[in-house]
Amino acid sequence: MNVLVDTSVWSLALRRSTRNLNPEEKLIVAELAELIREGRARVIGLVRQELLSGIKTHEQYQKLREALGAFEDELVDTRDYETAADLSNTCRSSGVSVSLADMLICAVAQQRGWAVFTTDPDFRRYARILKISLHERRK
């Protein structure tokens, strides 16, 4: 199964120094590396934009942009946006507040039968309501 990797995981791997990661974060980065080796890691343009936003220097931006260049964006279409709105409405009607970006990630994963790999605890709440699968780090 392919895995849609959330900004939180890419950020650990590409925006943080390994020496500044705690042991759990290092295992998450290792899991991402394994997904990449297996050819199962996927990204959407919104996640790319989030990763490239807020970079302090042009040199850092260019370096990160080049690293992400190895990954093609999964194309997002009207159905994905409509599904994201529907998922958002479902969560809100259950009393769970959402981020529109998170709902697009959920929609893309759900529509394609992919899991989401994230460190964001909000996705656990979404998964209780929505039909999304979360990728768990392998032991």
Could you say what the CATH topology is called? Rossmann fold
Tally of individual domains? 1
Strand ordering within the main sheet = 3-2-1-4-5
Give the fraction of residues assigned to helices: 55-70%
Structural description of this entry:
- With 139 residues, the protein is α/β, with parallel strands linked by helices.
- The protein has one domain (3-134): 5'-nuclease (Rossmann fold, 3-Layer(aba) Sandwich).
- 58% of the residues lie in helices and 10% in strands.
- It has helices spanning 7-14, 23-38, 45-52, 58-68, 78-93, 100-112, 122-129; strands at residues 3-5, 41-44, 73-74, 115-117, 133-134.
- The chain has a five-stranded parallel beta sheet with strand order 3-2-1-4-5.
- The mean pLDDT is 95.
Overview in brief:
With 139 residues, the chain is of the alpha/beta class. It has 7 helices and 5 strands.
